[in-house]
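Today's session is about reading a structure prediction critically. Students often jump straight to the picture, but the first step is always the sequence itself: look for stretches that repeat, for charged clusters, for runs of hydrophobic residues. Only then move on to the predicted structure, which in these notes is written as discrete structure tokens rather than atom positions. Here is the chain we will use throughout the hour.
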Amino acid sequence: MSATLTNLVAGISALSWQHLVMWLIGSTLIYLGVKKNYEPLLLIPIGFGTLMANIPLSGAIGEGGPLTTLLQVGVLTELFPILIFVGVGAMCDFGPLLRNPEVMLLGASAQIGIFGTIIASTLLGFPIAQAAAIGILGTADGPTTIYVASLFAPEILAPLALAAYSYMALTPLIMPPIIRALTTSAERRIRMVYQGGPEISRSARLVFPLCVIAVAGLIAPVAAPLVGFLMLGNFLRECGVTDRLSQSAQNELINVVTLLLGLAIGGSMTAENFLTWESLGVMALGLAAMIFATAGGIIIAKLLNAVRSQKINPMVGAAGISAFPMAGRVVAKMAFAEDKQNYLLMHAMAVNISGQLCSIVAGVVVIAITKAILGS
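Below is the predicted structure for this chain, in token form.
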């Protein structure tokens, strides 16, 4: 029997129904990326990685396998998520946040999903280290989720990463039913006049990222890379003398790292690791976390309306989750659907950017608390 035929027989004999299920999952991710345009830059590499990792006796994983190498070098060392933050920071304009600091309250309110899910996960029996990582799913912030998981719970990295990016991609499907359930038609029609506020000086834009690094670093030194790389990207954007680096961070860097990160995540989604009750529980808690976060933003906005003369459209609170810019766009589209003269895009995007920053701050707080509890 030739070596090729021997390998074929061995591969077929090792094939199990679990492998077929993972092939279906990988193919579904590719379908969602291509046909539905749901986060294709990440779901397609994850899907291909999943297919390669679940071929019996695959050379893509294991010792010397390229997918395993990517996981070890880029994910478990937190390198890939940290590099992505450079690109994210370069794409973020914190001007609306600095002009209207009150939107921070709405962005912060969505973080209730993080802490609510941590409590729920702990009550369901997950160790505090895993619960902390699961909780970060509350704002659909993929890089922060991967970073925290790499620190505390690498054993559940695959379902965490898949949940974070899948739910972020499915934001247009997940958010609208929650918003409709918690708001009335009259509330969804509330119009908000956009007030630009004072112009933010170049000095303020440059000092802001430096202050964030200092404050967050003092709260949780271990999270200094998380905040530092994000603010580095933003500083490159705002300083005016590093346009080439800023553009590279927003395009070439984030594209290449996203490709490699997707392949590494897909490569970790082997049948024996992914098809477990624990992984399914993580996925379910991730969905619950996003629901909590969306609802939290809406409820806080409605509470603010009780003490404000100038009303806030409660839907804007839902944009506080970190799914940028999808959450802001969903809110703007829903407002326009209710009232063709209601333009909430600027308000929703301001809250969405605030949610992006607040999710990082919340991640820093979670890291600090978890490290203190674990005594490390």
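Discussion point for the tutorial: DSSP finds 21 helices and no strands in the chain.
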